[in-house]
Amino acid sequence: MLRAAARPRMIVLLVLLLGAAAVCARLGVWQLDRAQLRGEQAERVAVAEREQAPPAALGDVLAPQASFSGDLVGERVEVEGRYEPEGQLLVPERALDGRTGYLVLTPLRVSGSGGDAGWTGPVPVLPVARGWVADAADPAALAVPDGAVRLTGYLQVSEASGSGDDVPGQTEAISSAELVNRWGGPIYTGYLVLASSEPAQPAGVALLPPPTLGGGSGLNVQNLAYAAQWWIFGAFAVLLWLRLVKDEAAGDVPEDEAGEPAVPDRVDASSEVPWSR
User: What pTM, to 2 d.p., does this model score?
Assistant: First the structure.
C-alpha cells in the first residue's frame, strides 16, 4: 500500500485533495464565525425588543417561592412596594465597567403581589439589586428611598449559595435560599435588576446593565450546521484519497506470485499432420 501511495499520480491526487480539505476547513471556520456573529446579533435584537416592550406586572409572570424558568431571565417587569432599609446588604467583588466594587441589594416588600401567577399568601419579599457602588462607606449613595416605590427592572435568576463566611452587612451571593434566613419569607426565587425608580434613588448608585438572556448558546444554528458540513466535506476528501490508494494497491500483483510468462508449445514443422494430405 505504501508503494501505491508513493506513485506520482497518487501524490498529485494527495496534494489536490489536501488543498480541497484545507479550503473546506477554512470555510467551516468562516461559518463558525458567522454563527457567533449572527447569534450575538439575534441576542441584541431580543434584548432591544424586551427593553422597548411595556413591562409586565411582576405578579403576572412570577409568584413567590415558584420555580424560576430560564425564559424569565431579562424579562422586563414593574412592581410596587416598600423597601426595608434595615435588611440592605452589599455584595462584594462585583465588577462594572472594569472596576471592582459592591452591588447594593435591598429587600422590597411587594404590595399587590397577586395577578396571573396566582399568589394569595403573605406579603412576599423581592431582592432588588439597586445598582453598584465603588465605596461601601458612602452613606449618601447607600440611602434607601422612603415610603412606597414603583420600580421597573429586569428579572434575574437567583445565584448559588456562597460559602457562608459573610462579613456583617454583606453577602457573597444573591441567593434566595440564604436571603430568606435573613429577611424572612415568602421570597421570590429570582431578583430584580433595577432600571428605574419612582421616586428616584440616590445618584451615587450606578445602575446595572440588563441581564443576558438565558436559554441560548449564542450561536446561530443554521450557520453552525453549515460549518459542520464543510468540515465533513474536508474529512471526506482525505478519506477519498485513502480509498483510492487502497484500490490502487489491490490491483497490484506481487512479483513472487507473477512467475514467468507462459510460452506456447513449439510445433515441429517436420511432424506429419493427418489432414495435410
Answer: 0.65
User: What gap in Å lies between CA 30 and CA 32, rounded to an integer?
Assistant: 5
Burial of 103 per CB tally in 10 Å (0-12, 13-18, 19+): buried
141-166 pLDDT per residue, tens:
899 999 999 999 999 999 998 877 77
Kindly report the CA angle at 220 between 25 and 74, in degrees rounded to 5?
145
Domain boundaries, the chain: 2-41+219-248, 57-198
What angle is formed at CA 22 by the lines to CA 17 and CA 26, rounded to 5 degrees?
150
State in words which class domain 57-198 has: mainly beta
**Residues contacting 187, CB < 8 A, separation 6+:** 64, 65, 124, 125, 126, 127, 176, 179, 180
How big is the chain, counted in residues? 277
